[in-house]
């Protein structure tokens, strides 16, 4: 089916992203996978190419568009290329809104030029060793000391954790538990007491640096408070819809891409004297997956449109997230099976897609948490 959410301008942007991937990312990806981290230079190259801060005001070097479809194009192309190391969407679509919507004018002037040039890599640190799904259980504390907060605690599984120069940290600013006493503090590289732990050894996304972060009496100036004090939870809830949609867009594109590779494979691979594609079981498998991908695509595209119109609510973002990522998991697994033993070899794209994609149903809110959110919206 013809997709109707993109215009010629979006397609021209797609060409730019493809060229960037071919020139600046794919030739280096295997080395980055071995090293566990991408280069700082590729961030600067992304900045030069205009791929950072699409929604940031041009005054700070950004793209000046609030049209999420440009982000969707970027996410789709990265998913198709299997370029899982360079977390541009995390920077643009997940951290970006905190800096553009909550920052004061002074903070924007301080942080956004580096954000758009690629000099400043960003991360968001919510998850802790003892609290992931249950954000209300966060234990990191920021104690008010007049002109600064004293930050203490630990975060884990933080994407861009090694490279990040600015980390938006969710911390508790009142002694009481629950959601009402949390604030967002921007911790900067080099602050005393801010330490990075291990670059964690994951089963996939090997070029993406995912790290532990430790805060030991870090003096965070009050000028680095993002948004109002104790207001973090509302900000997190507002921004998580876009994060979940971004993940859904990538999941739908990854599933379609791996299915496309598998269609080519079963046409070419022979067994029992004819191509696999001539066997009815294989044909049914492909037919089912093509149907599921097409249905998913139409729902995700619709959510992109709704988001553009400011109407995407938490429940529908959650539907898109769990549905598309579970579809990706299922499709990639079945495609791997159709590749036989070759599917288990990491030199085949399907094997890497299997490993890289497995996280999708977990980060950004697990499938189970998505269903909780939807259940609350449907049942009250
Ligand atoms: C590669 C990677 C990158 C990540 N990047 C970031 C990042 O940049 N920033 C960040 O802050 N975090 C990040 N995370 C953390 C991620 O968001 C969490 O791992 C995720 O939210 C789940 O939290 P948890 O690991 O503590 O699991 P838990 O919350 O302990 O959940 C364990 C299991 O219990 C289930 N469960 C929990 N509560 C319920 C419930 N109420 N009902 C039913 N089932 C439930 C979960 O669905 C899951 O299956 C990343 C994680 C990974 C692995």
TrEMBL record:
Keywords from the UniProt entry: FAD, Flavoprotein, Oxidoreductase
4Fe-4S keyword on record: no
Pfam families reported in the protein's UniProt record: Acyl-CoA_dh_1, Acyl-CoA_dh_M, Acyl-CoA_dh_N
Domain named Acyl-CoA dehydrogenase/oxidase N-terminal: residues: 7-119
InterPro entries according to UniProt: Acyl-CoA_dehydrogenase, Acyl-CoA_DH_CS, Acyl-CoA_Oxase/DH_mid-dom, Acyl-CoA_Oxase/DH_mid-dom_sf, AcylCo_DH-like_C, AcylCo_DH/oxidase_C, AcylCoA_DH/ox_N, AcylCoA_DH/ox_N_sf
GO molecular-function terms, A-Z: acyl-CoA dehydrogenase activity; flavin adenine dinucleotide binding
Secretion signal, residue range per the UniProt entry: none
The UniProt record lists the keyword Secreted: no
Domain Acyl-CoA dehydrogenase/oxidase C-terminal stretches: 233-379
GO cellular component: cytoplasm
CC cofactor: FAD
Pathways involved: Siderophore biosynthesis; mycobactin biosynthesis
Domain Acyl-CoA oxidase/dehydrogenase middle: 123-218
Known function: Catalyzes the dehydrogenation at the alpha-beta position of ACP-bound acyl chains. This results in the introduction of a double bond in the lipidic chain, which is further transferred to the epsilon-amino group of lysine residue in the mycobactin core by MbtK.
Family: Belongs to the acyl-CoA dehydrogenase family.
Listed name of the protein: Acyl-[acyl-carrier-protein] dehydrogenase MbtN
Annotated source species: Streptomyces pilosus
């Amino acid at each position: 089916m013809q997709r109707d959410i993109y215009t010629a301008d979006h397609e021209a942007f797609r060409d730019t992203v493809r060229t960037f991937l071919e020139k600046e990312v794919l030739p280096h990806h295997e080395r980055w996978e071995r090293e566990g981290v991408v280069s700082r230079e590729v961030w600067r190259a992304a900045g030069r190419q205009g791929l950072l801060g699409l929604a940031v005001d041009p005054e700070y070097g950004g793209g000046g568009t609030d049209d999420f479809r440009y982000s969707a194009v970027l996410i789709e192309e990265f998913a198709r290329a299997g370029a899982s190391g360079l977390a541009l969407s995390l920077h643009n679509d997940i951290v970006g809104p905190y800096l553009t919507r909550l920052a004061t004018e002074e903070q924007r002037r301080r942080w956004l030029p580096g954000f758009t040039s690629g000099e400043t890599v960003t991360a968001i640190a919510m998850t802790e060793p003892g609290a992931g799904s249950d954000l209300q259980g966060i234990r990191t504390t920021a104690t008010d000391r007049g002109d600064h907060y004293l930050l203490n605690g630990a975060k884990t599984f933080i994407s861009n954790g090694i490279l990040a120069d600015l980390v938006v940290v969710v911390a508790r600013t009142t002694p009481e538990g629950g959601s009402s006493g949390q604030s967002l503090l921007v911790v900067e590289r080099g602050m005393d007491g801010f330490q990075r732990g291990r670059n964690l050894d994951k089963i996939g996304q090997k070029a993406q640096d995912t790290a532990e972060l430790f805060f030991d009496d870090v003096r965070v100036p009050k000028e680095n408070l993002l948004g109002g004090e104790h207001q973090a939870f509302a900000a997190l809830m507002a921004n998580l819809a876009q994060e979940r949609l971004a993940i859904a867009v990538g999941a739908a594109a990854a599933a379609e891409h791996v299915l496309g590779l598998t269609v080519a494979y079963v046409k070419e691979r022979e067994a029992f004297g004819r191509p696999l594609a001539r066997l009815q079981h294989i044909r049914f498998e492909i037919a089912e997956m093509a149907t599921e991908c097409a249905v998913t695509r139409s729902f995700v595209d619709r959510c992109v449109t709704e988001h553009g119109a400011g109407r995407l609510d938490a429940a529908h973002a959650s539907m898109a997230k769990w549905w598309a990522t579970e579809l990706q998991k299922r499709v990639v697994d079945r495609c791997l099976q159709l590749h036989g033993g070759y599917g288990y070899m990491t030199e085949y794209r399907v094997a890497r897609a299997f490993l890289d994609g497995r996280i999708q149903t977990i980060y950004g809110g697990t499938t189970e948490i998505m269903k909780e959110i939807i259940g609350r919206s449907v049942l009250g």
